[in-house]
Amino acid sequence: MSAILLSTINARYVHASLGLRYLAANLGDLRDDAKIIEFVLGARAGDMAEQLLAHRPRIIGFGVYIWNVEETTRLVAVLKRVAPEVVIVVGGPEVSYETGSQRICDLADYVVTGWGDLAFAELCRNVSSGSRPSGKVIAGGQPSLSAVRMPYAEFTEEDIARRFIYVEASRGCPFKCEFCLSSLDKTAWAFDLDRFMGELEILYDRGARHFRFVDRTFNLKAAVGTRILEFFLERLDEKAFIHFEVIPDHLPEKLKGAIARFPAGSLQFEVGIQTWNEDVQALISRRQDNARAVANLRWLREHSNALIHVDLIAGLPGEDLESFGRGFDRLYALGPHEIQVGILKRLRGTPIARHTEPFGMRYNPEPPYNVLQTDRIPFGDMQRISRFARYWEMIGNSGRFRRTLPLLLDDAPYTRFMHFSDWLFGATSKTHEIALERLFEHVHLYLTRELGTPPATAADVLLADYEASGARGRLSFTPERPPREPRPRASTERAELRQARHLR
Ligand code: B12
Ligand code: SF4
What we know:
Elements: E1 4-10, H1 18-25, E2 34-40, H2 45-53, E3 59-63, H3 69-82, E4 87-91, H4 103-107, E5 110-113, H5 119-128, E6 137-139, H6 157-162, E7 165-167, E8 170-172, E9 188-190, H7 193-205, E10 210-213, H8 222-235, E11 241-246, H9 253-259, E12 267-274, H10 278-283, H11 290-303, E13 307-314, H12 321-333, E14 338-343, E15 362-363, E16 371-373, H13 379-397, H14 405-409, H15 413-428, H16 436-450, H17 455-468, H18 493-503
Parallel strand pairs: 1-2, 1-3, 3-4, 4-5, 5-6, 7-10, 10-11, 11-12, 12-13, 13-14
Antiparallel strand pairs: 8-9, 15-16
The chain binds cobalamin and iron/sulfur cluster.
C-alpha cells in the first residue's frame, strides 16, 4: 500500500522518467509512503487504473507530456469514474500552459505548472493535513536548485541495468528559439557541480553506463563540460555510452581536446541545426552562426569518434520545400551519422504561435500538434516530407544501408530521396510495419527499375548491407540460404546496435 503514487507513461521502457524521480526524492518525510509506477505507451487505461488502485492510493501524481497526454487523459477519466475519492494531480510540460483548454486539466483535482520538485511535496502535505488548496492550478515556482534534492538514488538496480540513466547538470536554456519550450526559460541554471559529480560517481560505481544528459545546451560552459567529459574519460570501459545535446556553433578548444579522446562508440552528440535559412532563423529568434556550425560539424566528423545526430525541422515559418531541401543537402554533405527530420510542432506555450496567421500555419489540433500546411508548403507536400522523414529514419539513419545509400542518393540527396520516398509510398501505401526484408526488396526494385542499376550490382550491395546489419532472414533477389536463429535482446541493446552499425 502507498498513499502517494507518482506515475507516468513513458515513450518506451528504456526511458525512465527523471521528472518523477525528482518529485519522489523531494517528498521528505512522505517519501516512505510513496511509490513510482511507470507505464509505457500502448498500455490499456483499465489495466493501468487497476494496477494503480491496487495500492489504495490517496493521491496520484501524473507526469504529462506531449507523447502521453491522450493516454493519460483516458486513464484519469477511468480513475475518476471508479475512484473519484483519489486526488489526481497532473504536472509536466504539456499541462504547464493553456490549462484552461485541456480535458485532462478539467478531470484532475490539481494542475501543477512548471517545476514540481518542491511544489508536489507541499501539495501532498496540504492534502494530507486536510488544508487542501482552493484553486485548481498551482504554479510550481522556481526554487533555487540548491534547495532541490538530486534524484539519482531513486534509480533502481533494474533501471541501472536496463534503462537509459537521465541526468541533469543544468536546467533551462538562455536561447529563445520560438518553437521550443525551453525558450520560455529566462536562462540556464546550474546545479552545484561538486554535488552533481558526486552523484555521477555513485551512479557509475553502481554500474550505470548509459547516461543521457537532458541539459538543453551541454556545451554552454567549457569548464563545466570539460570536467564532466574528463570524469567519463577517467572511467571509460567498453560499456560506457554518454549522450549530450549541444548547440552547433560553440565548441571551445578545451572541450574539443576532451571530445577527441573518446573512443568510438562511447560518445553521442545531438546537434540542433533546425534550419540553415538565415531569414527563417531570424524570424524564429534562433541565433546561430552557420559558418561556425559548419566548421564545428566538420571538426567533429574529422577529429572525433563521436556519433553525430543532427536535428532539422521542416515546416518552419518562411521556409519552403526548396529551402528545406537545400538545407538537407548542406547537412548531408557534412557527413553526420544521423539526420533527424522533424516536422514543426506547435508546443503549448511556445511563442511560435505568433506566426500562425502571417504565415498561414495550420497545425494539427491533436497531439503532437504537427504543422499540416503553411503558406509555402501545401498539405500534400507536408505529407510527402513526413514520409521522407520516416523513410529516412529507416534507410538513412538506421545505418543498415551504408553501402546502398550512395547508389540511391548520388549527387542530389534530397531530390533523389524524395523521389524514392514518393515511389516507396506508392508501392507500399505504408510508412510503418514494413518488414526489413521487404524494405530491402523494395530498394532493390527501385534501384533496378527506376534508376537502371544493373540487378547484380544492386543485389551485391544490398546483400552486403543486409548481412552487415546483422539481419538473418532471406531476400527474394538472392540465392536461398538456410535461415539463422534470431537471438533475444536486452532493453538498451536496440540503441546500441544502431550506434554500432554507424561505426562499422
Ligand atoms: C527525455 C526526453 C524525451 C524522451 C522520452 C522520455 C520518456 N520519459 O518517455 C524521448 C527522447 C523519447 C522524447 C521524445 C520527444 N520529445 Co522529449 N524530451 C525529453 C527531455 C530531453 C528530457 C525530459 C526530462 O527528463 N527533463 C528533466 C525533468 C526534471 O524535467 P521535466 O520532465 O519537465 O519534469 C519537471 C516538470 O515538468 C514537473 N513535472 C513532471 N512530471 C510531473 C508530475 C507531477 C505530478 C507534477 C506535479 C509535476 C511534474 O516537475 C519536474 C521537476 O521540476 C525534454 C527536454 C528537457 N530537458 O526537459 C524533452 C521534452 C520533454 N520533449 C519534448 C518533445 C516535443 C518531444 C518530441 C515530440 C520531439 C519530436 N520528436 O518532435 C518527442 C515525442 C515522442 C513521442 N513518442 O511522441 C518537449 C515537450 C513538450 C511537451 N509539451 O510535452 C520537451 C520539453 C523539449 C522541449 N524543450 O521542447 N523526449
Ligand atoms: S532549441 Fe535548443 S537552443 Fe533553442 S531554446 Fe530550445 S533548447 Fe535552447
